[in-house]
Amino acid sequence: LISMMTTDEQFLSWGWRIPFLFSIVLVLGALWVRNGMEESAEFEQQQHNQAAAKKRIPVIEALLRHPGAFLKIIALRLCELLTMYIVTAFALNYSTQNMGLPRELFLNIGLLVGGLSCLTIPCFAWLADRFGRRRVYITGALIGTLSAFPFFMALEAQSIFWIVFFSIMLANIAHDMVVCVQQPMFTEMFGASYRYSGAGVGYQVASVVGGGFTPFIAAALITYFAGNWHSVAIYLLAGCLISAMTALLMKDNQRA
C-alpha cells in the first residue's frame, strides 16, 4: 500500500519505514490484550507446585525431553510458510520477470490477502473450536496441496481471475486454516514448566528453515530447471502434504 502511494524515490528514502513504525501500535495493543488475559489453570498449578530446587534452562529441558517436537513444529509450519512466501514473495518476482505480469498485481494481492485474513483467521479459529483443531489444520494443508499446481497454471495462462483466486486459496484459506490453530498445537507438545520456551524456539527455528530459505530455494529451482515452474509447484505441494501428514499422525489433545 505504501509503495503504491509513494514514488520509488520516496519509498526508498522514508516510505519503507512506515510499516515498522506502525508495528509500535501493534506491540502496544498486544501488550494490552496480554495483560488482560488470565493464566491457564495448568500453568497456575505448575507455579504452585514448582520445586524450590534450581532447574535447568527451560529450552534445554524442552530439547532433552521432547526433541521430536521441534521437528514436528518445522513440519507443521511448512504449509503456512510456503503458501505465504511463494505467493507474496517468490511469485512477485517470478511473474514480473518471467511472465511479464505487472508488479502491482501481486502487491495488490498481498494487500488483499492481508485484509481478508482479518476476517478468515477468527472464522477458522471458531471452526476449530467447534470441529477440532486438527480437522481444520489438515483441511487447510490439503487445500494448499490441491492448489499448488493450479496456482502456477494460472500464472502461465496469465489469467488474472484465477491468479487471484488461487492466491486466496493458498495465502488466505490454506494459510489461515493452519496458522489459526498452530500455537495451541505447539504448546501442547511440551510440559507446562518449559512450554513457552519450547514452542517459541521451535517456532523461530521453523521460520528460518521453512520460511527464510523458501524464496531462495524456489528461485534456485527455477534457475536449475531453466525457468520451468513445475519444480516449485512440487516443492509447494510437498511442503503442504508433509504438514497434513504430520498433523494426521499426531495425537489430538484438544479438550472439549
UniProtKB/TrEMBL annotation:
Domain Major facilitator superfamily (MFS) profile: 1-255
Residue ranges of coiled coil: none
Pfam families for this protein: MFS_1
Topology term for the membrane: Multi-pass membrane protein
Presence of keyword Transmembrane: yes
Any GO molecular function: transmembrane transporter activity
Record-linked Gene3D superfamilies: MFS general substrate transporter like domains
PROSITE patterns recorded: MFS (PS50850)
Residues annotated as transmembrane: 14-33, 74-94, 106-128, 135-154, 160-181, 201-226, 232-250
Cellular localisation: Cell membrane
GO CC field: plasma membrane
Swiss-Prot/TrEMBL keywords: Cell membrane, Membrane, Transmembrane, Transmembrane helix, Transport
Predominant location: membrane
Name the UniProt record assigns to this protein: MFS transporter
